[in-house]
Structures are given as C-alpha cells and as structure tokens.
Specification:
This protein is 3% helix and 48% strand. The chain has one helix and nine strands, in the order H-E-E-E-E-E-E-E-E-E. The longest helix has 4 residues. It is globular. The two termini are 12 Å apart.
C-alpha cells in the first residue's frame, strides 16, 4: 500500500483489478510485488475472465476522528462462473509491472458452479475504545 500513499498508484482513477487465485499460490509479502508473481496460479474456469474484474465506484476516505484510511469499491461480481479459488488478489492494471496492492485469503477453497459469484466488501470491526463490534463497508482499512 506504500505506493498508494506515495502517489505512485491512484486507487480512485487507476484500473484496479481483483483476480481469483488457486490454493497452489503461497503469498509472500516480502518478495511478491507484481501481478507476474501471482498470475501463474490464477484460477481458471468456465466464464472466468483471465486477469480478473476491474473494481468500480472506488473510494479512498480518511477519518480524522479515528485516524484511518478506508479503501472501498462496489461489491464485485464474477458473472456466471464455474471456478474454484482460495484468494482474491488486488493489483493495479494501469501501472507498469502491475503492482500488487493486497490479497484476501478466504481460508480454504471456495467454489461457484454456473452462478454469479459476488464478493461483498464488508468486514467486522471492533472499536478499541468501546469494544463495540460493527459491520462496516470497505475492502481495507489502514490505521495511521
């Protein structure tokens, strides 16, 4: 995410994609920094488009009261696919080298069979001050 904050990547205006990746992929945050480091393990299946889907309605907002940035986008749909995957990998398709931004580990293989696969960008959050647990919208939240 350092490239986002140093303005090398424009989260809102660049083409940010999310691709589905098989369980054969072993994430390495120290050495994997480009889509080429991941693409050999991309999921394949009926209706799945290589390279993934471009995120839409992207926002990047800062909370001055909580001191965090929230990266969000419209929920993502892979229409009418038959595919098995474990990870969703985010990368910038507009920049040379297609730098990786983040990955989401679903914990085990997930499958869709001739259906719309929808990823909803919501998460549970526990407020460290109150202890309250809420659901919030967003792909990623970074505290600064």
């Amino acid at each position: 995410m350092g490239k986002v904050f140093s303005k090398q990547i424009d989260w809102v205006n660049d083409t940010i994609k999310v691709a589905l990746v098989k369980s054969t992929y072993m994430p390495n945050i120290d050495t994997h920094d480009e889509w080429a480091d991941v693409s050999a393990n991309e999921a394949t299946g009926t209706g799945y488009t290589a390279g993934g889907v471009a995120l839409t309605s992207k926002t990047l907002t800062y909370s001055t009261t909580k001191d965090w940035w929230t990266f969000d986008a419209a929920d993502t749909t892979f229409p009418n696919v038959t595919v098995t995957f474990r990870y969703a990998v985010f990368y910038d398709d507009s920049v040379s080298g297609k730098p990786l931004l983040a990955y989401l580990d679903f914990g085990s293989n997930q499958s869709a069979t001739a259906e719309d696969l929808k990823i909803t960008w919501d998460y549970l959050y526990q407020d460290p001050e109150s202890g309250d647990i809420t659901t919030d919208s967003g792909i990623l939240r970074v505290q600064v």
